[in-house]
Specification:
The chain has nine helices and 24 strands. By secondary structure, it is of the alpha+beta class. The strands form eight sheets. A six-stranded antiparallel beta sheet has the order 19-24-20-21-22-23. A five-stranded antiparallel beta sheet has the order 9-8-7-4-10. Strands 14-11-17 form a three-stranded antiparallel beta sheet. A hairpin with a 2-residue loop joins β20 and β21. Belongs to the peptidase C40 family.
Length: 478
């Protein structure tokens, strides 16, 4: 996701594909099954198919120590990342106002409401006023909190959904991202109506409804985020056990890569919220008291749920297994629909192995903290196709507004998995097939059309490879 452009673009009308399509090169075209997604039969929809094609799929690409070095490098070099411990204990007005203005400086574009009507100027003025930029003090103590439930991050302090086109209600232009339970934040400012906080999280700075944040001391917040032992959510999503005794943590959604502390010293036979814990992990979750302050509570996470005692090893097999756990999940711009978009998808997969990434597509594709191959006007079509054919499993391929993860090749044809609204390709007769997907999907790369003239590979901006040798020049080709 990369505001202000609609990412994972190519929202297309569903069309029945007929014939055999052309590709970005001169090789034999891929077949088109009845469902219309070029080159994809049932066998290609499982991670096992792609793992079986690899030599040594369980070899560790980067160990934990190397990942820690890369994460520190990313935090140091990428301005979209925020080291909360490094932020000043007292926040200057210029710093806070800069964060807010960078995100929501104005509403220049024409926007439409759910009913398709253009948003009135008076409504736009209300959103701007609710930021209360004039009320930011010259200097104020930084405040700290933990997110208590999955919550949206918004461009403006409002839940109103707005869109670029009448009737196009999937991409809410004010939806920026989402934060998961247990995420630490710095609380930088409050909206005029008091319902919102502007927070800085490790990956993003935006507006969040204050009801989703419990305020505590810096020591409490950071101690929770670093507490051991812990469980890492390795499923697409899991939920805590239902508990009427503590509704705030009942059936709480925990998304892939979420880290939750385990109460290892909890007595084996002592009930948790009215239930015996022997078949579950006893975890600790943040809780928001009625006055907004931070508390902690035990909760149960069933042992059958897809979690792990640590981050998964970074292997090509694990990248495939993790990515395919999202296959078919509804596309959610800015993590809407309790799901995720293209950049959120690849980020959550890599974070389940401990690898941090910037939130947005553009930041990922350009980050000085990641090793990437950049493409420009000097790179012709043949050079781009050659780079696509040299992709390795886990490589991230960027075009304007979209990212795809390489999963392997079939007879030299590179395939990707990506969270996308749809895809387009040319049939054998030259006509364009457009397939609505709106989901995490598998497809070959080379036949995909960016528009009527260009293939995806012709608009490729960079390839990011998470790999060893952090000292290697970031501009070197993989």
């Amino acid at each position: 996701m990369n505001a202000p452009f609609p990412t994972c673009l190519f929202a297309a009308l569903l069309a029945t594909a007929a014939g055999t399509p052309a590709r970005a090169d001169d090789a034999a075209p891929a077949p088109v099954p009845e469902h219309g997604v070029i080159g994809v039969d049932e066998s290609k929809l499982t991670p096992g198919y792609w793992i079986a094609r690899l030599a040594d799929p369980d070899r560790v690409v980067l160990d934990r120590a190397a990942i820690a070095v890369d994460n520190a490098r990313l935090r140091a070099l990428d301005p979209s990342m925020h080291d909360l411990r490094a932020l000043p204990a007292r926040l200057d007005r210029s710093l806070v106002a800069g964060w807010i203005e960078d995100l929501s400086g104005d509403v220049e574009e024409t926007l439409y409401a759910v009913d398709g009507k253009a948003v009135a100027a008076t409504q736009r003025e209300e959103w701007l006023a609710n930021r209360a930029v004039d009320a930011i003090p010259e200097r104020a103590d930084a405040r700290y909190g933990l997110v208590v439930a999955r919550a949206d991050l918004r461009r403006f302090p409002t839940t109103t959904r707005v869109f670029s086109e009448p009737g196009d209600t999937d991409i809410d232009r004010f939806q920026e991202s989402a934060l998961f339970p247990g995420t630490p934040v710095v609380i930088a400012h409050a909206s005029r109506d008091g319902r919102w906080w502007f927070v800085v999280s490790p990956l993003y700075a935006a507006w969040i409804e204050r009801r989703f944040v419990a305020e505590g001391t810096a020591d409490e917040v950071f101690a929770y985020a670093e507490r051991k032992p812990y469980r890492i959510v390795t499923g697409a999503t899991v939920t805590t056990v239902a508990t009427p005794e503590q509704p705030a943590v009942s059936r709480l959604q925990l998304d892939m890569s979420t880290r939750v502390p385990v109460l290892a010293d909890w007595p084996a036979g002592r009930p948790v919220n009215g239930e015996h814990p022997y078949s579950s992990h006893v975890i600790q979750l943040p809780l928001r008291r009625d006055d907004g302050s931070l508390a902690f509570t035990p909760a149960l996470l069933q042992k059958r749920m897809d979690t792990n005692s640590d981050y998964l090893p970074l292997t090509r097999a694990n990248l495939l297994r993790q990515a395919f756990k999202f296959l078919g999940e509804r596309y959610g711009w800015g993590h809407s629909y309790d799901a995720r978009d293209c950049s959120g998808f690849v980020s959550d997969v890599y974070r389940s192995m401990g690898v941090q990434m910037p939130r947005n597509t553009r930041d990922q594709s350009l980050s000085a903290g990641l090793r990437h191959t950049a493409f420009g006007d000097a790179d012709d079509h043949d050079a781009r196709v050659a780079a696509a054919r040299a992709l390795e499993v886990g490589d991230l391929v960027y075009i304007p507004g979209h990212v795809m993860m390489a999963i392997g090749d079939v007879d030299g044809e590179p395939y990707v998995i990506h969270d996308t609204t749809g895809l387009s390709y040319r049939r054998q007769d030259g006509s364009m097939a457009r397939v609505l997907l709106n989901a995490v999907s598998v497809s070959p790369l080379l036949p995909l059309q960016f528009n009527d003239k260009d293939y995806y590979v012709d608009r490729m901006t960079s390839i990011v490879r998470i790999r060893p040798d952090a000292t290697k020049d970031a501009t070197n080709r993989p």
